[in-house]
Amino acid sequence: MRSARWKFLFLGIAIILAGTWLAARHCCAATVNVGQNVPAAQRVPLDHIDHAAWDALLKKYVDARGMVNYAAWKASAADTKALDAYLNELSAVSFSTATPAKAKLAFWINAYNAITVRGILREYPTTSIRTHTAKVFGYNIWKDLQIPIADQAYSLEQIEHEVLRKMGEPRIHFAIVCASIGCPPLRNEAYTAAKLDEQLTDNAHKFFAQRGKFQFDAQKKTVSLSPILSWFAEDFGDTQAKQLQRIAAYLPGAEAQRLAGSGVSSVSYLDYDWNLNDQSSVGQSQTR
User: Fold this and answer.
1) Cα distance between residue 15 and residue 232, in whole Å
2) Cα 50 to chain center, whole Å?
3) What letters, b where the CB count within 10 A reaches 16 and e where it falls short, cover 76-92?
4) Which of 85, 91, 152, 173 has a C-alpha 20 to 30 A away from that of 220?
5) H/E/C letters for each residue in the chain?
6) Rounded to the nearest 5°, which phi and psi values hold at 198?
7) Is the separation of the CB atoms in 58 and 190 below 8 Å?
8) How far is Cα 244 from Cα 229, in angstroms, rounded to an integer?
9) Using one digit for the tens of pLDDT, what is the confidence trace for 60-115?
10) Is 0.85 topped by the overall pTM?
11) What strands lie across the sheet with 214-217, from one edge to the other?
12) Please, are residues 185 and 229 in contact by the beta-carbon 8 Å criterion?
């Protein structure tokens, strides 16, 4: 009987603590909304969404290395407002079963990147997105920064894991950018259905051309990869051999491609650089 009473006591304490944690999490991590709530009757088909404004902003503030001039962007009230207007437009989308997969993919990649930039502009000046990713209490940019689309609020985490990854295109990991140098370079143009395959292929080549994301030793038959290839390994294949074969065509040089495609004996993972992809940053990854 005494043992049973202790069990019930501990269970009660656990329930109270869990409730307290959830209440504190809800209290201290207020949702930050971008975009707008659009009534169903006012939504428009995906092909009516115009990414031209986002494209113009990227061309203005993102350089050829994928680094962002956050300081200048935040200083421009007009261009911050233009980004907000673009996010409002994304909120007005209406999907249908007839919507082409490439159009959906381009839409969600643009959405992820635009929301991330808006989230960083809200916090800037800052040195890393990790500064704004509270684990327990407080604001977490990946969970609490949300946009309403088609009757659902989407966080960055949900867009990545519940939408993009489920679309079966692993090259998204060379396109969605979490505002860090360790991410793929932010492309300074919007994604479009017509150019999507070309854009994703180009991204993959540029990603692996950076020493901070890929290195290999032909004699030892070893490769070192960005940890992105570890975190999302299953998206590239269910075995390490298949994963390497999937990326082989994008690697720099015939020898690296052959090695990844046939006989790697060892794979290791490089450190991830969480520093902000800010044009004012120093020590960027070097390209071969």
Assistant:
1) 34
2) 21
3) beebbebbbebbebbbb
4) 173
5) CHHHHHHHHHHHHHHHHHHHHHHHHHHHCCCEECCCCCCHHHCEEHHHCCCHHHHHHHHHHECCCCCECHHHHHHCHHHHHHHHHHHHHHHCEECCCCCCHHHHHHHHHHHHHHHHHHHHHHHCCCCEHHHHECCCCCCEHHHHEEEEECCEEEEHHHHHHHHHHHHCCHHHHHCCCCCECCCCCCCCCCCCCCCHHHHHHHHHHHHHCECCCEEEECCCCEEEECCHHHHCHHHHCCCHHHHHHHHHHHCCCHHHHHHHHHCCCEEEECCCCCEECECCCCCCCCEC
6) -60, -45
7) yes
8) 9
9) 999 999 999 999 999 999 999 999 999 999 999 999 999 999 999 999 999 999 99
10) yes
11) 214-217, 222-225, 266-269
12) no
Which residue reads 């259905």 in tokens?
Answer: 193
